[in-house]
Specification:
Elements: H1 9-21, H2 24-46, H3 48-57, H4 61-110, H5 113-118, H6 121-171, H7 174-212, H8 214-219, H9 223-270, H10 273-276, H11 281-322, E1 342-349, E2 359-366, E3 371-375, H12 382-388, E4 397-402, E5 405-406, H13 412-416, E6 419-422, H14 433-437, H15 447-456, H16 460-463, H17 483-497, E7 501-505, H18 513-527, E8 531-535, E9 547-552, E10 555-560, H19 562-568, H20 571-584
Parallel strand pairs: 3-8, 3-9, 6-7, 7-8
Antiparallel strand pairs: 1-2, 1-4, 4-5, 9-10
Helix pairs in contact: 1-6, 1-11, 2-4, 2-6, 3-4, 3-11, 4-6, 6-7, 6-9, 6-11, 7-9, 7-11, 9-11, 15-17, 19-20
């Protein structure tokens, strides 16, 4: 399932401004502040002529009285307008960031499992942190520059036309040159910005991998390799940002050169005898001052392209995520408590980009209330088969049925509410033990129910030794607990859910011998009258399963009980001999 194709820059920017429009009251005040700010700046420039001609040359008493008052009023207005602009822009910008982050995060939670198989986690994290901030700049800071500086340029042009129309018209020769420069810079910024976003995601991904696998990096001598890998990506990011800086510097220099030539032309024409006869010193200074005051605004209007194009490229990336279709949930039937009757009819599945099927023409019935064990070599399709039950993946052919209905007919939430999962890779959240056991929809469980689940999972004995008991924090990813303790917390979570279907993927792989014995006893009691799928490489843990399904290269090659499969002397018997020979060696 692919993301939507990027929209045009104009369409993306219009959509982005819609996010700002949600804050229209404060945005309106901010725009009003921008207009007053630009008007006050032009107003002060307009005062230069009477300040020189009437105040110093003619020493007019009226001007001597009102000029200081006018200057104070202009700068008070500008100060209030600046505060209103900056605060309003900040409010709107933070609102845009807040909404975009919520939408992207919510979309992640609705994406199919295959999406996360394809996307690097560093890129996913970077979108919520770095990319969103780039969008905020485009929707607020860039708008501020465009409005304030555009109005400032217009105000200065008005002053120049008012006091020196002939000189001002001569300056319009530089407008096409600046417009061409702005277009060129904008195109270049947009191309570079997309590459910068990807490089930032790569930097984030490498850091995340190394921090998460720091023990392996140290034990296997990977520090030099990881340092080199990070240095390469970091250098690539540095070069891209230098390209932005050099483009920005070049555009600024060209604008200044063009403006300097125009200013030189103004001085030359203003000193012609025909102009000297019609223009006072005050008019000339007001015109020159307006032109000089216009230069910083012209400079920012060229460099704002960098901000806008980064924002547009970032927004296209985020909108592609937001527009990506979520998991297919076309079911209309709410599932009551399931009987747990699972059936696969001719199911085939191939992962995107794979050359062979992960599952091929699989037919299987898991009787309700019985234990079905899935065994086979690594890559034989065991976990893929179990992942079809909660609809993490959709089969390419065939159908998976629960209680006689195809899975897509059940609503997704009601289907998953019937399933408890204990994965090989235990996922714990940086919260208390109690909240990890009573996670998500289980949050309403009482303290007594949580304690009972912990006791049944043989977790209470180590929980009671912790200083805060159930309220003890587990750390990021359960880092403050041992592997066996994390496994037992996950099993307690499954016990508390009390679902009619259990999926145990290597459920006892992280436990020591004593803990495994106790957990197996607890799981044996829990499995009664529940449909259970057990995935285990250690065949000793599934010898008492009601049926054992042997997979090889995505196909079911044998089905039966432990004794029957040993007597058959096929794939299962070979795996059994291999494991017990290794154990006895």
């Amino acid at each position: 399932m692919s993301a939507a194709a990027p929209a045009s820059a104009a369409a993306t920017y219009r959509r982005l401004l819609d996010y700002s429009a949600r804050h229209w009251p404060i945005a309106t005040l901010a725009v009003l502040g921008m207009a007053v700010d630009a008007g006050a700046t032009a107003g002060f420039t307009w005062l230069i002529k009477p300040m020189l001609d009437d105040l110093f040359v003619h020493q007019d008493q009226g001007t001597i009285f009102w000029m200081p008052i006018a200057i104070v009023i202009v700068f008070v207005l500008r100060g209030v307008a600046t505060w209103l602009t900056d605060y309003g822009v900040a409010r709107v910008g933070r609102g845009v960031v807040h909404r975009l982050r919520e939408q992207v995060f919510a979309r992640y939670l609705m994406m199919p499992a295959g999406y996360f198989d394809r996307e690097a986690s560093g890129q996913l994290i970077s979108r919520v942190t770095y990319t969103v901030e780039q969008v905020a700049q485009a929707s607020t800071d860039a708008v501020k520059v465009m409005i304030v500086d555009s109005l400032t340029v217009l105000g200065m042009l008005f002053v120049m036309l008012w006091y020196g129309a002939k000189l001002t018209l001569a300056l319009f020769v530089m407008a096409p040159l600046i417009a061409a420069l702005v277009w060129f810079v904008g195109q270049r910024y947009r191309r570079i910005s997309r590459r910068i976003q990807h490089s930032v995601g790569s930097v984030t991904g490498i850091v995340e991998e190394v921090v998460g696998g720091q023990r392996e990096v140290k034990v296997y001598g990977g520090r030099d390799y990881e340092t080199g890998r990070f240095a390469e990506i970091n250098e690539h990011n540095r070069r891209l940002n230098l390209k932005v800086a050099s483009t920005n510097a070049l555009s600024t220099a060209l604008v200044q050169i063009i403006a300097a030539c125009a200013l030189a032309g103004v001085v030359f024409f203003a000193t012609r005898p025909s102009m000297l006869a019609t223009m006072s010193a005050g008019s000339f200074m007001a015109t020159i001052t307006a032109m000089i005051a216009m230069l910083p605004s012209l400079k920012r209007l060229t460099t704002v392209q960098a901000m806008m194009q980064r924002g547009v490229a970032a927004a296209q990336d985020l909108f592609a995520i937001i527009d990506t279709p979520s998991e297919v949930d076309s079911g209309t039937v709410q599932m009551p408590r399931s009987r747990g009757e699972i059936e696969l009819r001719g199911v085939s599945l191939r992962y995107p980009g794979a050359v062979s099927d992960a599952l091929h023409a699989v037919d299987l019935v898991c009787p309700p209330g019985k234990v079905t064990a899935l065994v086979g070599r690594s890559g034989s399709g065991k976990t893929t088969l179990a992942s079809l039950i909660p609809r993490f993946y959709e089969p390419d052919a065939g159908a998976v049925l629960l209680d006689g209905r195809p899975l897509p007919e059940w609503t997704l939430d009601s289907l998953r509410s019937q399933i408890a999962l204990v994965s090989q890779h235990v996922v714990l959240f940086n919260d208390s033990i109690a909240h990890n056991i009573a996670y998500g929809a289980l949050g309403g469980a009482s303290r007594e129910q949580i304690l009972a689940a912990a006791r049944a999972a043989n977790a209470l004995e180590f929980i009671e030794r912790l200083p805060d008991g159930l309220d003890s924090k587990v750390g990021e990813g359960g880092a403050l607990l041992s592997g066996g303790q994390r496994q037992r917390i996950a099993i307690a979570r499954a016990i508390l859910k009390n679902a009619p279907i259990l999926i145990l993927d290597e459920a006892t792989s992280a436990l020591d011998t004593e803990s495994e014995r106790l957990i197996q006893d607890a799981l044996s009691r829990l499995m009664r009258e529940r449909t259970t799928l057990v995935i285990a490489h250690r065949l000793s843990t599934i010898e008492h399963a009601d049926q054992i399904v042997v997979l090889d290269q995505g196909r079911i090659v044998e089905t039966g009980r432990h004794e029957e499969l040993l007597a058959h002397d096929g794939h299962y018997a070979a795996l059994h001999r291999m494991q017990f020979h290794d154990a006895g060696a």
